[in-house]
């Protein structure tokens, strides 16, 4: 998790998740990079923290640095990462852009409730025969994240997509003054959303209601395309039909359809579809950021109102150590550089960690404030302490996790102790 995103989540500030497939597969470089930077800046301007998600060398990243954005934007071998792709991509150390489905999974695990995208996948045209249905729809039915989108992508069957979303109980609402479900490049599709929300406050209340019930399904907020772009919708729709025909004749199916269609639409419309696509993505980022800010305010107000009713979370501030215990087998320890028979075992300690461990096992769920290095011990520490709230732990590059080695006699008496615990100095007042 990027430090700016982690800090915002810890402080309860609004965070907006952003997908990266549009960077790796939706636009050519360097347009994709400039688009990603612009969208992140729109999110910041509207009071939220952007968290572009992606997979880099087999690791899921929640929030990307500018260098990491450049890496994904220029990568020639990036893959599209949906739910089904995570096991292979992570195990093989590959890099790629997360789809709507993949981004929802990572955003939910990171604790980000609002996700902005250009458009979701859906039921493809002729899907009743091909059974080509995007994993985005099934993800919306089982992952509690609010997706702010300009509806289903323009190459899809809107009616069947809405019908499909009804079955797993996905709450779909149009954003605006009517229930008109927007088309990707048009403000009208001929279909009605079940509900509509007039502004970001109403959208935030809807999302908060879904989260408060603990529903396992997501929410889809469908945003109208900007008015100034709506006039181009008919010409683009005609180009869509032509591009779809070419895709069928070339036998292009599955996840290859969207990149092909986007490229072909850009050619057939002399770039107008690309301009419209950029405009609606930017508009979605603005709307989604405002919704995230409104949701954050709503949740903070409720937490403040419930302050006297909610037991406070204990906070433990202290060290985490990796302990090595060397026990002599014989009563006498041989000196002079000789090897003594004995046993060595590894465990985990530190007074702060021990207290947090005890409280966690008693059901008190404390927050541990400590520091570890990004070294060979990090993974084992996190695994051993998986039952504890380690979300605020500092993980520092170029630092070593604290270690302590105790040499004890066969009777269990401490003979000598060695410790390297300089990292504890990083637990400062500013960090706390």
UniProtKB/TrEMBL annotation:
<dbReference type="InterPro" id="IPR007342">
    <property type="entry name" value="PsuG"/>
</dbReference>
<dbReference type="GO" id="GO:0016798">
    <property type="term" value="F:hydrolase activity, acting on glycosyl bonds"/>
</dbReference>
<dbReference type="InterPro" id="IPR029056">
    <property type="entry name" value="Ribokinase-like"/>
</dbReference>
<keyword id="KW-0479">Metal-binding</keyword>
<dbReference type="GO" id="GO:0046872">
    <property type="term" value="F:metal ion binding"/>
</dbReference>
<feature type="domain" description="Carbohydrate kinase PfkB">
    <location>
        <begin position="315"/>
        <end position="426"/>
    </location>
</feature>
<keyword id="KW-0464">Manganese</keyword>
<protein>
    <submittedName>
        <fullName>YOW5 protein</fullName>
    </submittedName>
</protein>
<keyword id="KW-0456">Lyase</keyword>
<dbReference type="GO" id="GO:0044281">
    <property type="term" value="P:small molecule metabolic process"/>
</dbReference>
<dbReference type="InterPro" id="IPR022830">
    <property type="entry name" value="Indigdn_synthA-like"/>
</dbReference>
<dbReference type="Pfam" id="PF04227">
    <property type="entry name" value="Indigoidine_A"/>
</dbReference>
<dbReference type="GO" id="GO:0005737">
    <property type="term" value="C:cytoplasm"/>
</dbReference>
<keyword id="KW-0378">Hydrolase</keyword>
<dbReference type="Pfam" id="PF00294">
    <property type="entry name" value="PfkB"/>
</dbReference>
<keyword id="KW-0326">Glycosidase</keyword>
<dbReference type="GO" id="GO:0006796">
    <property type="term" value="P:phosphate-containing compound metabolic process"/>
</dbReference>
<dbReference type="InterPro" id="IPR011611">
    <property type="entry name" value="PfkB_dom"/>
</dbReference>
<dbReference type="GO" id="GO:0004730">
    <property type="term" value="F:pseudouridylate synthase activity"/>
</dbReference>
């Amino acid at each position: 998790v990027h430090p700016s995103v982690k800090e915002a989540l810890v402080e309860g500030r609004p965070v907006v998740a952003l997908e990266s497939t549009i960077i790796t597969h939706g636009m050519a470089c360097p347009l994709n990079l400039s688009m990603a930077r612009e969208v992140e800046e729109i999110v910041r301007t509207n009071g939220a923290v952007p968290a572009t998600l992606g997979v880099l060398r087999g690791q899921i990243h929640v929030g990307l640095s500018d260098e990491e954005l450049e890496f994904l934007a220029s990568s020639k071998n990036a893959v599209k990462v949906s739910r089904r792709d995570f096991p292979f991509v992570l195990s093989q150390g590959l890099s790629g852009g997360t789809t709507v489905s993949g981004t929802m999974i990572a955003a939910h695990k990171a604790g980000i409730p609002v996700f902005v995208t250009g458009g979701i996948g859906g039921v493809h045209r002729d899907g009743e025969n091909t059974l080509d249905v995007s994993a985005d729809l099934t993800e919306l039915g089982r992952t509690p994240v609010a997706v702010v989108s300009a509806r289903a992508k323009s190459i899809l069957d809107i009616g069947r997509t809405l019908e499909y979303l009804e079955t797993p109980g996905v709450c779909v609402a149009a954003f605006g003054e009517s229930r008109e479900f927007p088309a990707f490049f048009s403000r009208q599709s001929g279909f009605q959303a079940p509900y509509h929300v007039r502004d970001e406050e109403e959208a935030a209340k809807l999302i908060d209601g879904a989260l408060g019930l603990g529903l396992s399904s997501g929410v889809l907020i469908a945003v109208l395309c900007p008015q100034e772009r709506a006039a181009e919708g008919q010409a683009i729709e005609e180009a869509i039909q032509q591009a779809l025909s070419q895709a069928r004749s070339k036998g292009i199916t599955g996840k290859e359809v969207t990149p092909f269609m986007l490229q072909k639409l850009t050619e057939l419309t002399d770039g107008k579809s690309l301009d419209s696509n950029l405009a609606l993505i930017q508009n979605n980022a603005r709307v989604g950021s405002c919704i995230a800010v409104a949701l954050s305010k709503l949740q903070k107000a409720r937490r403040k109102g419930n302050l006297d009713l909610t037991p406070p979370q204990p906070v433990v501030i202290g060290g985490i150590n990796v302990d090595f215990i060397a026990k002599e087998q014989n009563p006498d320890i041989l000196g002079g550089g000789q090897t003594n028979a004995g046993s060595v075992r590894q465990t985990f300690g530190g007074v702060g960690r021990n207290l947090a461990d005890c409280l966690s096992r008693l059901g008190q769920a404390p927050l541990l404030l400590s520091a570890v290095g990004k070294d060979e011990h990090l993974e084992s520490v996190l695994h051993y302490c998986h039952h504890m709230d380690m979300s605020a732990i500092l993980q520092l590059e170029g630092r070593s996790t604290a270690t302590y080695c105790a040499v004890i006699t066969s009777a269990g008496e401490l003979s000598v102790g060695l410790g390297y615990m300089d990292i504890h100095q990083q637990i400062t007042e500013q960090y706390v």
